[in-house]
Amino acid sequence: MDSGFGSDFGGTGGGKLDPGAIMEQVKVQIAVANAQELLQRMTDKCFRKCIGKPGGSLDNSEQIGAAFMGDPRVV
Questions:
Q1: Which residues, in sequence order, are CB contacts of 51 under 8 Å at separation 6+?
Q2: Domain ranges of the chain
Q3: To bridge 62 with a disulfide, which of 2, 17, 33, 58 should be the other Cys (CB 3.0-4.6 Å)?
Q4: How does it assemble (predicted)?
């Protein structure tokens, strides 16, 4: 029974997997996970600094801070 991993992991067919292609894919997945974690930490930190008292509405300084959170040039 064919598992379908050959096409996903750079297999050459015939049931053989290419270890180099698998390693590259794992490296990419790790890099993506690290970038997502970094972005989440930065977002959390920025939110804590910009939004002092979460509530029903934002005051002027919180609105400015929230606008900067979405600007990639600020990070």
A1: 58, 62, 65, 66
A2: 19-69
A3: 58
A4: Heterohexamer.
